[in-house]
Amino acid sequence: MSRKLCRVAVLISGSGTNLQALIDAAGERAGFSICAVISNRPGAYGLVRATEAGIPASVVDHRDYPDRESFDSALMAEIDRHTPDLVVLAGFMRILTSEFVRHYSGRLLNIHPSLLPKYQGLHTHQRALEAGDSEHGATVHFVTEELDGGPAIVQALVPVQAEDSAELLAKRVQVQEHKIYPLAVTWFARGRLRMVEDRSELDGELLPRSGKKITGAC
Ligand code: GRF
Predict the structure, then answer these.
(1) Counting Cβ atoms within 10 Å, is residue 42 exposed (0-12), middle (13-18) or buried (19+)?
(2) What are phi and psi of 184, to 5 degrees?
(3) What does the alpha-carbon distance between residue 24 and residue 113 come to, in Å, rounded to a whole number?
(4) 37-79 per-position pLDDT tens digit
(5) Whole-structure pTM over 0.85, yes or no?
(6) Ligand 1 interacting residues, C-beta cut-off 6 A
(7) Which atom of ligand 1 is found nearest the CA of 20?
(8) Residues near 85 by beta carbon (within 8 Å), at least 6 away in sequence
(9) Which long-range contacts (CB under 8 A, 24 or more apart) does 101-106 make?
């Protein structure tokens, strides 16, 4: 008899390439299924990806709500209708209220395109180039009330090359994002990963504060 799959809700705002990586990884082997895809933007291409994969897709448009609190409470209602075990932010471009973050505490993940704690916020690839960094990457982390600041789970390290532009670097980082996000979700789904206060724990061991490092193929 097959084990019960972890139900994952994915929140998006855009193209959804990370969503696609999660769709491709989902199944018995990974231990999770995607129960819902929700976008705050009606035109997000990720909605097409979800529909093509037979996943319920819906929109909660932030422009329909007068403030952040009312948007977040409508979003929570839409998410909870699908009874997820885990909520995954995959290019979801909204700042969340404390109430939202607390509601999903320990079961809310995000991916950020930098080696956190470096470069919280936007334009991460350009900032890494301007700083002359030799290494850049992406981080999957639990979401807490601190923006891009919750406990790191896994980081993909990507060497910066002399001829890199922000676009070239972003492309190579995204290839790694598509590996580490399904990896972290699989760990969670299999009961191997949890948030313990301000740290991530994998297989009963606290991870380094910057998460587990992955270089190249994982
Ligand atoms: C990714 O670069 C991710 O790190 C950031 O937003 C982007 C989303 O891209 N949080 P996509 O929609 O998954 O293609």
Answers:
(1) exposed
(2) -65, -40
(3) 21
(4) 999 999 999 999 999 999 999 999 999 999 999 999 999 999 9
(5) yes
(6) 14-19, 90-91, 111-113, 138, 174, 177
(7) 13
(8) 6, 7, 8, 107, 189
(9) 101/143, 101/144, 101/145, 102/145, 103/76, 104/143, 105/144, 105/195, 106/142, 106/194, 106/195
What distances in angstroms separate CA 170 from CA 179, 180, 183, one per listed residue?
15, 15, 20
List C-alpha distances in Å: 148 to 93, 140, 177, 206.
Answer: 12, 10, 16, 20
Torsion of CA 11, 14, 17, 23, to 10 degrees: 40
User: Measured between alpha carbons, how far is 128 from 166 in angstroms, rounded to an integer?
Assistant: 9
Active centre residues (catalytic): 112
139 close to 115: Cβ distance less than 8 angstroms: yes
Residue with tokens 């995000």: 110
